[in-house]
Amino acid sequence: MMKCKKCGIKASVNMRHHKMALCKEHYLEWIPEQTERFIKKYEMFKREEKILVAVSGGKDSLSLWDILIRLGYQADGVYLGLGIDGGVEYSHESQKLTEQFAQQRNLKLHIVDVEKEYGQSIPMLAEKTHRGYGKPCSVCGLAKRHEMNRIARDLGYDVLATGHNLDDEAAVLFGNTLSWEGTYLQRQSPVLAESNGLARKVKPLCRFYERDMAAYAMLSGIEYIYEECPFSVGSTSIYYKEMLNQLENQRPGAKLTFYLRFLEAKNSGLFAQPIAVEFATHLCQKCGQPTSAPDLCSFCRMIEKVSLEN
Amino acid sequence: MVEWRLKEINLAVKLILRKQEFEVRPGMTLLSALKKCNILPESVLATREGEMIEEDEILKDGDIIKLVAVISGG
Predict the structure, then answer these.
(1) Is the CB of A211 less than 8 angstroms away from the CB of B52?
(2) Domain A42-272 grouped into CATH 3.40.50.620
């Protein structure tokens, strides 16, 4: 029988990558303790700062919100209504679970409905703009980045926190390494500092395995959306995650080492720009957010294009 | 004949993952059962009667193991 490393009773969760098993009680203490350690280690935010948590109704973002509140941080949530149905009322269900989570804990939740705000849902925008080769994931990512940043900035939050876990980070890293995307590799980090018009972004769960976060959500009794986003079926990120799990199965700790050694290598200058390349940034004439284009940002350009076609 | 069949059905462990169902023989560990069903232990959490169980757990006659997929995209 696997025993809890701290108290010796039957363990609920075994983490082969840490060579450690814990019972429910100690696991639910350990995850917040470690989160606090990562928040401090990567200098994500301070206790007096106002945090906006990007919540999707999934296990990671709701767990992150739960952990930050348990740790005593001032954390509000923002939910983005994407208008995805996929036969399982995906957006409707995830919004319901997010609202329920916030109500039960008396937390402040901002809800932005993309269709109400811009006249088109994510699948509609994707169809009309032909971005992403028939899949709305590219439009969804663009809208999320734009809207989360807008809300964080407009409502005066110091930092935007997302629930990216280690499997998310390792999958992105794997993809970017396969194609040697130098610029993306250089940007991947637990913290993205605030820069003109862009809120500081942090990923406090970036060192926890996805399985560990699912265990946290289950053991904490957090009700999350179990259904997969209908558009993520067959996605590259899931394919990479499965591949990395094959590796992990044979070599426990491989995913964690891959990510942590990357951060170390980056800090040692492995991905430093050979020459100072400054990205020219302009402010979008419509929303005021930074953009590389001189007039409108990608999101506002997309909305304008769709509006003109209507 | 009917009794024999019922007995045989009880001598099985059922694993459920989303809409898929698998059957394995009792007496093996969860890890062996997952291997037999070609499921990576890293990609699921297992529960029995609502309690989370780990890979060294011995599966018993009539056990129903619910597997929770942990990988999500996005």
Answers:
(1) no
(2) yes
Positive or negative: CA dihedral A136, A137, A138, A143 = positive
Nearest to A232 among B41, B43, B74 (CB): B74
* H/E segment holding residue B51: strand B51-53
What residues of chain B, 1 to 60, have a C-beta less than 8 Å from chain A?
40-45, 47, 51-52, 54-56
Q: Which of B42, B52, B56 is the closest to A215 by Cβ? A: B52
Q: What global pTM score does this model have? A: 0.91
Is there a contact between B54 and A58 if contact means CB atoms under 8 Å apart?
Answer: no
Q: Which residue has the tokens 């011995």?
A: B58
Angle at which helix A210-220 crosses helix A166-178, to 10 degrees, equals 160
Q: What is the pLDDT of residues A53-110, one digit of tens each?
A: 999 999 999 999 999 999 999 999 999 988 888 888 888 999 999 999 999 999 999 9
- C-beta of residue A130 within 8 angstroms of C-beta of residue A76: no
Catalogue all structural domains in chain B, each as residue range(s) with its CATH number: 20-69 (3.10.20.30)
Tens digit of each residue's pLDDT (9 = 90 or more) over A237-281:
999 999 999 999 999 999 999 999 999 999 998 877 665 555 667
Q: How is chain A split into domains, by residue range?
A: 42-272, 274-310
Assembly ipTM:
0.86
Give the model's pLDDT for residue A310: 67
Residue A237 token pair: 């990120």
